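Teaching note: in complex prediction, the entire set of molecules is handled at once rather than each chain in isolation. The prompt given to students was simply: 'Predict the structure of this complex.' The entities are:
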Amino acid sequence: MDEETGRRGAPTISEVADAAGVSRATVSRAFTRPGMLSPGTVARVREVAGRIGYVPNQVARALSTGRHGNIALIVPDVANPFFPPLIRGAQARADLAGYCLFLGSSDEAPEREETLVAKFAGQVEGLILVSSRLPEERIRAFAERRPIVVINRDVSGLPRVLIDTARGIAAAVDYLADLGHRRITYVTGPAASWSNQQRRHAVRRAARRRGIEMIALPAHRASFEAGREAVPEILATGATAAIAFDDVTAQGVLVGLAERRIPVPERFSVIGCDDVLGATTFPPLTTVSARCDEAGEMALDLLEDQLAGRGLRDIRCVLDTRLVVRGSAGPAPAA
Amino acid sequence: MDEETGRRGAPTISEVADAAGVSRATVSRAFTRPGMLSPGTVARVREVAGRIGYVPNQVARALSTGRHGNIALIVPDVANPFFPPLIRGAQARADLAGYCLFLGSSDEAPEREETLVAKFAGQVEGLILVSSRLPEERIRAFAERRPIVVINRDVSGLPRVLIDTARGIAAAVDYLADLGHRRITYVTGPAASWSNQQRRHAVRRAARRRGIEMIALPAHRASFEAGREAVPEILATGATAAIAFDDVTAQGVLVGLAERRIPVPERFSVIGCDDVLGATTFPPLTTVSARCDEAGEMALDLLEDQLAGRGLRDIRCVLDTRLVVRGSAGPAPAA
DNA sequence: GATTGACACGCAACCGGTTGCATTCCACTC
DNA sequence: GAGTGGAATGCAACCGGTTGCGTGTCAATC
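The expected output is the structure of the full assembly:
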């Protein structure tokens, strides 16, 4: 008993062994391989263990077996609503497989991500990196030490899951074109982001195919504010609709328009991407669903395969997307 | 080298010792107590270690020292915007103190929280439980094993930080009263929540003091939808303003009002609580700031004190709040 | 020149589990 | 009654670090 804190050291396997009159090996097996022991012994050991409050020490177990039972999931920013569904998906799968999920948030800073990964690497069996901001060679270096699965980052040679918004974006452009829009803008996201590049190209391609004009506007900062501040520029282009890099940016656009008393969708149409806001905006946001939850599930399945020794090293899972029509896009206003 | 995966076992302290021609103890000390060794030895050992890619094994270290260098932070739901600022605050402090923060999300389910805490308990030095949904005796039981700090839960005997919204709420009621509102509603949050009870009482007390009428409306579900669905009931009371349990609920109210083309704040005023949405709504939400980031910082500081052996076991930190005026509340409409 | 003490380093035990192998016991077969 | 095989359990090494204590070296002191 620690005098200072009143907290006593947890009972160890040896104490249980003494109390039950068996060897430490037997206690260990009573928990890990009960089939090896006589039913009576198992019951007796467990009873004693329960009585004195013994809980196997995970750390010691990990040291001798090399298996920690933990998986780390690192995201750039927990505050970004894109990630929680993904986290939840991964967590559900981790539960099923008996793994404990450790979450880390890097605040979009590569250095923080680096230290986070390094610290986690020693305590988990594998890691999932979401929208990693790390240089590719660093990711590869870590992958030498531990199995790694990446999400939304196309690192060849590693298992990766990519959300392919191209199809959904194309549907969004078609939708706008069908509604009579002839000039649209794309409000850009982080320049370094794989998703942003992919989305921007998708908008451009689809617009060209439909013969409508597309103007890309650089985002000066992150997300919401970027969207809000882009509104004057958007309007200056003479466009009648905007597709935003993500839902949060789209929400910014929505607010910027509301501030100028421009009714949506009557006078201007807005489409987001990711479908993370649900119907919490006004008007409810028409958006491209990214199925983030499935991305999380899939990443965990891939990692599990790696850990089990089965599963390919170089596998590229692409998740398709579709347009979710709500109320923020409508017919182009008469000129 | 593992034939299957191409991944080799990490170099151990023994390999470094052999390569550098010193004992394992010396290698260990070269990293943990360089002052004990001659500068030349330290340099040589580190050089060799770096060359063969040695990284101290955290698990082994934790086993022998009992110090893991990890802290767990468990929240009910990462998707709730209340938590990210708190997480960030805690993380910043953890960095400073050299701890690695493990995050867990319990999805509001006590059983999940229970297993999460149990799994984490063996691998961290201490835990922070935010808005825990666990029965008090369970929290106490875990606190026997590891230092625990709780946030927004008044468990006597444990270090706890409480966000006291009473003052801010009172200011909000005063503000509304000053603007001429005579009947207001409070849109309730989760019944089991400590914060909800506290806020509800605060509204009632302040309303009585100012001699205005206060009507509490039960929330049928969580947050956003609760707010949106409460709008008809709110309007039926004849009230001219609403204070919502939290910002997300307030956002729901805002959307519900917008759907009915009721302009805010011209015809109805809305005030939220927590200040987690910033100015991302339209109109920007007037709200009671909860200083969640500071709560996270403070909790980590308290935990650190516990771990260092200093610090009281039974300490109750109360964070004050204040009203943040934006644009969602205005003068009461003329009757 | 013997004594002393600081310094640098090695030895070996220890943290709390797991596990290959040896041992004991017993029922069963020939 | 000796031989055999399987079931139940113990022994002891091992996982990869940390650390108290002991030893050897060398310069300073008397």
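Point out the following to students. Chain B touches chain A through 61 residues (CB under 8 Å). The CA atoms of residues 229 and 256 of chain B lie 7 Å apart.
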